[in-house]
């Protein structure tokens, strides 16, 4: 069960309307599909095009490529910063060779269904905190999947602050672990992944 925050400006282009029309993307044109590639292969492919490539960028692209169907994706609106678009992915990673150009810049995409556009303030408090702290193009917030799923199923009614508080500390700790998955230090990424997997078993 996966949830993400994805900003709608891949490769520097405002793609908000394209997201709303059912196609989310992350940019990084590189001349080829990234389907079925390992993280190391993704890094090697991108490094052939981008000399200043960082480990964080590799992690974000790899995260997008591995995004499963039925994931929840939150996208802050560019046209109205008070709004958040809530999507459910309807496909896995897709590649569009016609868009693999600098002047288009969004060949890597996933199809989505727009569930609703809501006020940021109406989201569950724990999700609002994650949105406030997310600075990257793509962040994983799967620790909030159940909370978001309940919010969607309930007709987009957030739980009260009292109900959220009981699990707030755990959610914040998991949020830190998910952020560490993008660390440039391999040992830190591995330890964070182990901690997340151990939590899912409990």
How would you concisely characterize the structure shown here?
With 202 residues, the protein is of the alpha+beta class. It contains seven helices and seven strands, in the order βαβααββββαβααα. The protein has one domain: Roll (ph1033 like fold), CATH 3.10.590.
Describe this structure in words.
The chain is of the alpha+beta class and 202 residues long. The protein is built from seven helices and seven strands, in the order βαβααββββαβααα. Strands 1, 2, 3, 4, 5, 6 and 7 form a seven-stranded mixed beta sheet that branches. The longest helix has 20 residues, at 161-180. The relative contact order is 0.17. The model is unreliable at 160-167 (pLDDT under 50).
And the CATH topology?
ph1033 like fold
| Beta strand count | 7
SS-derived structural category? alpha+beta
Number of domains: 1
What is the 3D form?
globular
What portion of residues is helical? 25-40%
CATH class: Alpha Beta
Based on CA atoms alone, the radius of gyration comes out at 17 Å
List the helices and strands and how they pair.
Blueprint: E1 3-6, H1 16-20, E2 23-25, H2 39-47, H3 55-65, E3 72-76, E4 83-89, E5 94-95, E6 108-119, H4 125-133, E7 138-140, H5 145-153, H6 161-180, H7 186-201
Short key terms for the protein model shown above:
seven-stranded mixed beta sheet, 202 residues, 7 helices, 7 strands, 18% strand, globular, alpha+beta, ph1033 like fold
């Amino acid at each position: 069960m996966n949830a993400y925050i994805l900003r709608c400006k891949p490769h520097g282009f405002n793609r908000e309307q394209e997201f709303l029309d059912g196609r989310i993307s992350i940019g990084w044109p590189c001349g080829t599909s990234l389907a079925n590639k390992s993280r190391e292969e993704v890094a090697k492919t991108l490094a052939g095009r981008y000399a200043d490539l960082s480990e964080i960028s590799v992690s974000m692209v790899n995260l997008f490529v591995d995004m499963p169907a039925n994931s929840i994706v939150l996208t802050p609106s560019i046209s109205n910063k008070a709004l958040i678009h809530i999507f459910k992915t309807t496909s896995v990673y897709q590649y569009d060779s016609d868009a693999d150009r600098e002047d288009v810049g969004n060949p890597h995409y996933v199809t989505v269904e727009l569930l609703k556009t809501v006020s940021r303030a109406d989201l569950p408090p724990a999700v609002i905190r994650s949105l406030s702290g997310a600075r990257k193009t793509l962040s994983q917030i799967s620790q909030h999947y159940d909370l978001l799923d309940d919010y969607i199923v309930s007709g987009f009614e957030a739980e009260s602050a009292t109900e959220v508080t009981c699990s707030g500390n755990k959610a914040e700790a998991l949020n830190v672990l998910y952020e560490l998955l993008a660390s440039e230090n391999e040992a830190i990424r591995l330890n964070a992944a182990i901690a997340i997997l151990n939590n899912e078993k409990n």
